[in-house]
Specification:
The complex is a heterodimer of chains A (281) and B (321).
Chain A: H1 7-38, H2 42-47, H3 61-69, H4 72-103, H5 109-121, H6 128-137, H7 144-167, H8 172-180, H9 185-196, H10 198-214, H11 217-222, H12 231-241, H13 246-275
Helix pairs in contact in A: 1-13, 3-13, 4-7, 4-10, 4-12, 5-7, 7-10, 8-9, 10-13, 12-13
Chain B: H1 13-52, E1 55-58, E2 61-64, H2 68-75, H3 77-112, H4 120-132, H5 135-146, H6 152-159, H7 176-188, H8 190-201, H9 205-213, H10 218-246, H11 250-256, H12 269-278, E3 279-280, E4 283-284, H13 287-312
Antiparallel strand pairs in B: 1-2, 3-4
Helix pairs in contact in B: 1-13, 2-3, 3-7, 3-8, 3-10, 5-11, 8-10, 10-13, 12-13
Classes of the chains: A mainly alpha (281), B mainly alpha (321).
Amino acid sequence: MGRRTSPVSLARTASMHAVLAAYTVIALFPVFVIVVNAFKNRRGIFLAPLALPDSRTFSLTGFQTVLSQGHFVRYFENSLIVTLSSLVLVLLFGAMAAFALSEYRFRGNTLTGLYLAIGIMIPIRLGTIAILQTMVASGLVNSLAALVLVYVAQGLPLAIFILSEFMRQVSDDLKNAGRIDGLNEYVIFFRLVLPLVRPAMATVAVFTMIPIWNDLWFPLILAPSDATKTVTLGTQMFLGEFVTNWNAVLAALSLAMLPVLVLYVIFSRQMIRGITSGAVK
Amino acid sequence: MASTAIRQPAVPVASAARRKPARLWHIVVFLAPAALIYTAFLVLPLIATLQQSLFVAKGNAVVFAGLENFRRLFGDPHWSGQFWNALRNNLWFFVVNMCVQNPVGIGLAALLSAKKLRFRGAYRTAIFVPTILSFVIVGFSWELILSPLWGIAPHLLRLVGLRHWFAPWLGDAHTALTTLALVSVWQFIGIPMMLIYAALLNIPEEVLEAAEIDGLSGMAQFWKIKLPLIWPTIGIISILTFVGNFNAFDLIYVTQGALAGPNYSTDILGTFLYRTFFGFQLQEGDPHMGSAVATVMFFIILGGVSLYLFGIQRRLRRYQL
């Protein structure tokens, strides 16, 4: 308090910034290299990979190849549909189950909670073989619904666990006051409890969304058809096919990165607040 | 049944008595959607997979074979060689992840939580960027950057006078796995950093002030006060890393393909499972053998998690803050 900045603390601050800035460069460098080179011609990519595109090296051929050969718009739609549907269902069903577990005391409550928590630690991928057989039997292979069902099952355990921790902290007086006022349980859940656990919902949303959007395993196994490819699988297959066409590869990587980065820049504050759940002011 | 199912009403008794039958309905309605989807697509497939590992296909029929698949997996040199190789690689992958991600994550979080740090938000946002990118983007980008064809990595090393260090790391059986583990660390460092950062911010100001009055500041304060308080968080991060690493697949598949080259040096359990189930080259896919591999992975993960829950977590002291 009230201390003047001494040379020692100045040096300390400077070295802290040096370390953080150095790591920031490490974190962002690959993204920078890919995006910058996507806008160059082949000569520019190989002769001066670290230079920004200039009038001689600027080129959009990579993007033209990607847009004419791949179906990236469709892949994006698929990814959006799958991720958003799964997210909504995980949040809704997860919050409902968390409410049942935290609000009502009934025989088997703890046991149900434990049962629903197994999936936090045991990855759903280990059941892939039986999941594929179920989907084949029910005709859901190569449908987005197959992915949504699997991702909802995958996301629920952590959602229920986090949300029920938070719902236990919601004041009983508030809910009982609502009950005395004649509100039924569903109104209490939707109108009183849900708004109070919004920060926790944000945390759950982040932890649910990122792995779903980025998953390669289940799209590869359950929905590899061209009509149902997600952007992650679509990019992977495109890259495998065009591996020697550097312009196309760099452009495809940039196209896969940019929307996620834009969304991230817009929502990063909420996201990070969600992850650190209320700890960050 | 309905009335015995409710032990202690959460609301005053008078109103609870009136509400009892309705209550059971509420519990069912609130729990059913989650419980059904979870059971149908996570628990039952898991059980079915464990069960299938005990069967083999004989012609068109499927017959019970006891532990035959496991005998082949551990006893038949063709299978056991691949399996132990994948397990060894997977362990190394995990060890590298742990040994690099935890110290670096703690270091970054400690710097970020320093008082009056400017640009805190910018650093935090930037360092978390790799975590939101998919394995496909991360794997391919690093493959390009490390490629001797493009020459970015040797160029950068020349700038710092270490050109002779460069080798085609991903193409060399001795270095490929470690390189990929480091790429994995690069990708996920945001998670340990952020969780530890949150844990550090949760340490009350009074505790730190009291430490300063006792003459503990800077590094000494970090080692003696902060680190003991964040051990539980480090424990959670470690077990999450363990589970994540032991069902990893995507990064290896994207950069090295299902054959996890060069010469299976990057083969981990996830890629081994994929090949066993779907087949590759001349070998046909085998769902029963695949189930056996998945079952072994299940017990490895279960073992690790139990060790953590019953062996380590209980010994971690939690301080009431």
